[in-house]
Predict the structure.
Amino acid sequence: MKKENLIAVCVMAGGIGERFWPLSRTMRPKQLLAITGERTMLRETIARHAGLSKPEDVYIITTKEQAGLIEKETAELPKGNVIPEPCGRNTAPCVALAAALLYAKDPESVMVVVSSDHHIPDSAAYRATIEDAIALARQEHVLVTIGVVPRYPETGYGYIKGGEEIAYPGKTKAMKVSRFLEKPPLAVAEELYKTPGVFWNAGMFVFNTKDILSAFERFMPESNPELKEIVRNAGKEGERAAIENYYRVVTKISIDNAVLEKADNVAVLAASFQWNDVGSWTSASSHWPEDGDGNRLKGEIKLLESEDCIVGNYHEGLVGVIGLKDVVVIRTGDAVLVCAKDKVQDVKKLLNGLDEKYR
């Protein structure tokens, strides 16, 4: 009987979610909060991949500080499937670490790389797209990224411009990547929004592990000897020491900047599902009930003469709001945030001067 090659889901779950203060804290990070539904965002992410991969082939890459919390949240996963990074080095080292460990298990394995804080309401459409991405990566040996058709001219996302179409057995349209574009100013975002074949960069990827490791060898050669040591020591006594050595020398850089923007074998799949990078109270509140005045509300709240506000009450008792417009109010047990809606991206700046007990 032919061996079934490993399909692994690698969930990047190392962030804190500082823009979700005061709800999100260092030891209560965003991925462990139920922001868009009844389950935590991490649990939603794992559930989304049911049927794509075996439960024992789901891996969580996180920080050493959060590893214990993640292990409790994902107690059904085998011991060792929560992989702590020695320190944060952005997404390229995170992907490289997962790829090295998976390659040691199965050189023909495929890895699905996702973040723990995305909201995708149509799981069936998502899984169909990822299945096509796996087929494309296997057939063409391309590095696959998932592009989402823009719904509006967003300045907070990166964009991907598709080029020549790729023929393969899947139903999802596939194209060679022509160009990656960083978060654009509004005028540029408006033009991109109107341009066919341009997508939001959703930060979701599918790689053959041997193909992405070859790319790291080509584009990050300075730390490749240490990465190969992880492969050689995976599952052995020297694994942790090899990981520590790699993180001492590897550059802090994103997978986009390190590899995808330089490689000539990158493809984009045009996803049909809705996607939300839940990065601020504004994006999170889009999943909350709306009243007749454009207010998004969660919890016990009373509003008078207020419009287009975001009010979340995560504590017992009532929050009252009178005569406000375009304001965010978030209440927890020990802190309250009040800010203009157009300043939600600056919430993380507020944390710099706070006492540790509020962080």
Q: What stands out?
A: The chain has two domains: 7-277, 284-358. The domain at 7-277 is CATH 3.90.550.10 (Spore Coat Polysaccharide Biosynthesis Protein SpsA; Chain A). The CA atoms of residues 303 and 321 lie 5 Å apart. The mean pLDDT is 94.
